[in-house]
Every structure is written in C-alpha cells, then in structure tokens.
Amino acid sequence: MSRLREAWAGESSVLADDEERKVLFAALDSFRRYRQVAHFNVTHRRRQAFYALPSAEWALLSGPPFNFLGTLDKVDDAIDQNAEIAAQILESGLQSFGLGMEPPDGAADWRGTATKADLDKAKTTIRQLYRDWSAEGASERDASYASVIRDLVEAFANVVDKGVIRVLVPGAGLGRLVLELSRQGYDVEGNEIAWHALFASNWILNQTGAAEQYSLYPFAFDFSNVISRADQLRVVKIPDVHPPTVLAASKVASSKRAFDRMKMTAGDFAEIYGIPKQKNKFDAVATSFFLDTAPNGILHQDPSPFPSYSRNLY
C-alpha cells in the first residue's frame, strides 16, 4: 500500500530539511489541536455570546422550539467524533516519521507549531473526507472522477494486462482517485504536496480496519445555510469501502499484485516529475482538483518540459 515512508524512499530525510520539517510539524500539530480549537471557536464562543444576552432572551432561546443550548451540546458531541478521526490521522502521521506524542529531550518539538492557516486546513481536510470517503459523497465523486476513469478505460481497452499501464495522479488529495484507478488494474502513482492531505490519505488507505468504521459530522460547524439542525448534525460513516479489501477483491487482468500497484510520492509535482530520469515512465496522467490550484496550470499541461509525459494521455 502507499505509505509515507515509502514515498520518501531514496530521499534524504524530510526531517533533516528545516523548512520541510516546519511545514510537516505544523500539519501534525493542527490535527492535535483540532478538538480544542473546534470546541473553542464553534461552541464556547457561542455560549459566551448567549449568556451575555438579557436573561429573558436567553431563557426564551434555551427552551422549545429553539433549544439553543441543547444544540450546542449536540455540536460538541459531533466535534468529539470528528476529533477522534483527527487523533487517528495524527497517530498515523507520527508513526510514519518515528515521532512520539512526547518528543525526547533534545529533539525538535512539533507541538505548538500550527498557525491559523494550518488549523483551517485540518478542519477542511476532515470535512473533505465526506466527499471522497463516504457513500453520501458518491454523487460528487462521480461528477469529478467518473469521466477520468471512463476515458482511461476506453483508451486502454485493448490492453489485456492492465498492470503494464502506468498512471500518474498529480494532486492526489485524499487518495480516492488513486484507489479507484488501482482497482481497474493500472499501476498508479499518486503525487501530493500538502501534508494535511498526505497524512489523511495515508491513514485512510493504510490504517483503517473496516468499511464504515468511523462517524463523521461534516457539517457540524455550519450554523448558517442549513435548512434544519438535523442537516447540520447529519452523520456519515467513513470510509465507505475498506481500501485493502476492495483492492484484493478487484477482478482485473493485471500482472501487478493488488498491493503493489498503488504508490504515493510527497512533494512538488514539477520538481519530482520534470527531470530526465522520469522519461517514458508513465502512459497517462489522470487528475482532478489539480490544474485549478496549480501556480502555473499551463506549465502542467504542456508536455515539453516534462519527459515523463512522452507517452502521455492527459
């Protein structure tokens, strides 16, 4: 399966690079602080504002049909469920780099390094698990991924051994497109630069034990633009499929073993793949949610600087 240690095989340790270590530590710390920050920003502040109201008004709002305090209690419970996922991602990430919750004496301390932007990314990453890894997110995935998968299947329909087809997935995000293409039998390599996404995808692809193992409340933070509190407190189960199980069950003609045909690299797409040693490495590039976020989308579509695109289907 696609583990972070393997993603950096052959490279100098990411922890030895001061800038990279800083970014990695901040991502880890943002998952550690998810519970505390969510409770403070989402419910604690609202309780403070609530009790600052005149007593007659907060008494009105605390009873039926508003039950505002009861809603905050339910949101706190939802935050705790989401925080369990954040804690699992954190534990998986720490293990990937041989780090502990309590750094030993003299070691760099990853705790307390997250910025507000890092905390926001952790919140967004947890929420995006709804789209990529819940049954309820299937319609959004189909709108984004189905055409990509269909075009690849059509392009290589005459290739009997799908394992000889190497597919690069830049901007792999939470890893769902990488999994789905691997299920088709292709030899797939995902690439992602964001540590929040790398930690979350590594956890869900490699560390979850069963389908629908965790409860996720993707809309718990949303007090606006919801029809009802039931919508705000809607729960979904993740992952909708167990990645190792569905890979092993894939009925495809592939010379690659199920667990050998899915890889992940961590780092900048142009730096990793725009070098001569990548020449003729891939048969296709498949991506979604990437070109619109790239600093230079034209560069990433132009095969001339990228020898890895020599046999490209983009």
Describe the structure.
By secondary structure, the protein is an alpha/beta fold. Helix content is 48%, strand content 8%. The strands form two sheets. The protein has a four-stranded parallel sheet with strand order 5-2-1-6.
Strand order of the largest sheet: 5-2-1-6
Q: Roughly what percent helix?
A: 40-55%
End-to-end distance, in Å?
A: 25 Å
What's the order of the H and E elements?
A: HHHHHHHEHEHEHEHEHEH
Gist of the model:
This protein is an alpha/beta fold and 314 residues long. The chain has 13 helices and six strands.
List its salient traits:
8% strand, 314 residues, four-stranded parallel β-sheet, alpha/beta, two-stranded antiparallel sheet, 6 strands, 13 helices, disordered N terminus
Write the layout of secondary structure elements.
Elements: H1 4-7, H2 18-32, H3 34-51, H4 55-62, H5 68-96, H6 116-133, H7 138-155, E1 166-170, H8 176-183, E2 187-192, H9 195-206, E3 214-216, H10 229-232, E4 236-238, H11 243-248, E5 262-266, H12 269-273, E6 284-285, H13 297-301
Parallel strand pairs: 1-2, 1-6, 2-5
Antiparallel strand pairs: 3-4
